[in-house]
Amino acid sequence: MLKIDISSLPLLYEKIASLYPLVLPIKKANEVNYDKYSNGAEVSLFTLKTNKSPKDMFFPQTEDLMKFKVDGQKIEIIDTRKEAQPFVVMGVKACDYKAFEVLDRVFLVDPIDTYYKTKREAGIIITLACDRPEESCFCKAFNIDASSPLGDITTWKVGDKLFWKANTQKGKDLTEKIKDLFTEGDEKTVEKAKQEITETISKLPFSNIDVNALSKDEMLDTFKSDKWSKLSEACLGCGTCTFVCPTCQCFDIREFNANDKIMRFRCWDSCMYKDFTKTAGGQPRPTQMQRFRQRFMHKLVYYPENNDGLYSCVGCGRCVKKCPSHLNIVKVIKAFGGEKK
Amino acid sequence: MEKEFEALIPQVCVITDIRKDTPDVKTFRVVALDGKKPFIHKPGQCAMLSIPGVGEALFSITSSPTQTEYVEFSIKKCGCVTEMLHSFEVGQQITVRGPYGRCFPVDTVFKGKDMLFIAGGIGLAPLRSVINYIRDNRKDYGKVAIVYGSRSADDLVDYKEIIDEWQKEKDFDVYLTIDREQEGWTGHVGFVPNYVKEVNIPNTYTAVLCGPPIMIKFTLQGLLELGFEKKNIYTTLELRMKCGIGKCGRCNVGGKYVCKDGPVFCMTELDELPDEY
């Protein structure tokens, strides 16, 4: 266990950034998002909930796939994939880190998505325990321990110190290169801090959420129940929940004409949009209620069914905070019995 | 360093033959740039075809795997990509990736069975792959009955092959029908679901359905009335797809992805899925 003064963090950022591109929560125009560090950037490492999750680092909002050169009847495909260079993502919370596992189970199963894989392998992830979880957090419902996230390196903020512990070889290698900035830290101090975090979490308003009590049979049986109409009544179909969600992974593939070449790219899409499933032949989900239901059924029933019970929600609470109509997954969970009795 | 294989990156192929089947259906014969078949597939599987700058779309592979020279796609003009494909001439290159999806269980469940194929309009496209596969492996399967209907006589896809080859095949019964009376048509007139009941195929046959949703719905009802068991009825689903490999999320219905868990489904499996297809 190592430690560094919080006041010395700018030195740490500079040092890491001199070795690898460094991505961490940065404040820009009053919004905190994961962004590339540069000298003078307003780092906001201890912001609990960044606007968007760090999924962008591995599954960017828009990403080039390949180029085409068209000449008369002929087509040439240009592979635009680059080998990813190592980079560091710092300040990742336990929920967002768990979300990578949810994404891995989509992109890294056969056939492997190499665009995602290369970035995932190149990324060195430094997590940060949540010292002040807040009322919209409910990661504990998914057995996520916000006091001890994993990752290549785990960090804890305790008082005016940041504690640092390397977990993997990648994490140890990075630590070795910057160890001059640290002093020995006391394991016990961190243990105490962890207990305090756990205690805070147990007192949160959503601590009564119990997804294991969710009646999946009921959800399937009541697929056509009025509950869904009621729950989704106010949904605007804006898709904000899907864009801020760390586990949402639906995408679109599109093309644009770039001078003499055609670029095919993918971009995030949302099951909340009516065009998502529209075909020349018809629309299997014509109402917003059906689209709303699909999103939550996928997260709470279909995804776990295919992934050994792992939920496609990590309780980060972004949808709780961002939905303009105050709809969210917590309301859905509660409506279907997911509360501690 | 050799780059890893990426499923989303297609291969360039060339259209070597275009056959106009009906006023709005053309069949495209496609080979890879080296003149060979672009991939090995199984009956019922699909492939992503694209025209750079226009888009990419999933089509069922209509040729049988036993065709070793090329693959064929029967495509109805009904959107941007299909309209552009219809404007193409022989020699045009397109991109192809696949094959995708779960095929008809030709090597397991279908083996030794009497088969009933029921198709409407362009729905014959995926079934043609299985039917010709069975013709080329005749001893492995029982009797074959085919009920095929379309709007008019001009809209019957692969009419020449049906008349010249299928009807002459031993133990092959072909029943054609069109929706409305037409000059020069001496065959049956009427909708597919009713015709299926009229021809009265024994309910011990394994049925495979493909066609517009309304046809599927009423034909299925009819088959159940005739005493067919759901476990002996198969169909294919079609939903919007982008990736074809179970990642983009578009074709998700219940716990299934139509692109990789389908497009072929047994009716007993469809009963388990929410009604959203």
What does this entry show, briefly?
Chain A has 341 residues and is α+β, with helices and mostly antiparallel strands. Chain A folds into two domains: 2-60 and 82-206, no CATH class; 211-251 and 269-335, no CATH class.
Top keywords for this entry?
heterodimer; A: 341 residues; alpha+beta; 2 domains; 8-stranded mixed β-sheet; 4-stranded antiparallel β-sheet; 11 helices; 32% helix; 22% strand; B: 277 residues; alpha/beta; Elongation Factor Tu (Ef-tu), domain 3; Rossmann fold; 6-stranded antiparallel β-sheet; 7 helices; 30% strand; globular
Question: What composes the largest sheet of chain B?
Answer: 7 strands, mixed
Task: Round the mean pLDDT of chain B to the nearest integer and report it.
Answer: 94
Instruction: Give the radius of gyration of chain A.
Output: 22 Å
The CATH top-level class label of the largest domain in chain B: Alpha Beta
Order of helical and strand elements of chain B: EEEEEHEEHEHEEHEHEEEHEH
Give the neighbour order of strands across the main sheet of chain B: 10-9-8-7-11-12-15
Oligomer: heterodimer
CATH architecture assignment of the largest domain in chain B: 3-Layer(aba) Sandwich
Spatial separation of the terminal alpha carbons of chain B: 43 Å
**Helix and strand element order of chain A:** EHEEEEEHHEEEHEHHHHEEHHH
Nearest-angstrom radius of gyration of chain B? 18 Å
Q: How many runs of DSSP E, i.e. beta strands of chain B?
A: 15
Can you put this structure into words, describing what you see?
- The complex is a heterodimer of chains A (about 350) and B (about 280).
- With about 350 residues, chain A is of the alpha+beta class.
- Chain A folds into 2 domains: about 1-60 and about 80-205, no CATH class; about 210-250 and about 270-335, no CATH class.
- Chain A is about 30% helix and about 20% strand.
- In chain A, the strands form 2 sheets. An 8-stranded mixed beta sheet of chain A has the order 3-2-6-7-8-9-1-10, with helices on both faces. In chain A, strands 5-4-12-11 form a 4-stranded antiparallel beta sheet, with no helix packed on it.
- In chain A, helix 7 (about 225-230) crosses helix 9.
- The mean pLDDT of chain A is about 95.
- Chain B is of the alpha/beta class and about 280 residues long.
- Chain B folds into 2 domains: about 10-100, Elongation Factor Tu (Ef-tu), domain 3; about 115-235, Rossmann fold (3-Layer(aba) Sandwich).
- Chain B contains 7 helices and 15 strands.
- Chain B has helices at about 80-85, 125-135, 160-165, 190-200, 215-225, 260, 265-270, and strands spanning about 10-20, 25-30, 45-50, 55-60, 70-75, 95-100, 115-120, 145-150, 170-180, 190, 205-210, 235, 250-255, 255, 265.
- In chain B, the strands form 3 sheets. A 7-stranded mixed beta sheet of chain B has the order 10-9-8-7-11-12-15, with helices on both faces.
- The longest helix of chain B has 13 residues, at about 125-135.
- The mean pLDDT of chain B is about 95.
- The interface between A and B is large, with 52 and 45 residues.
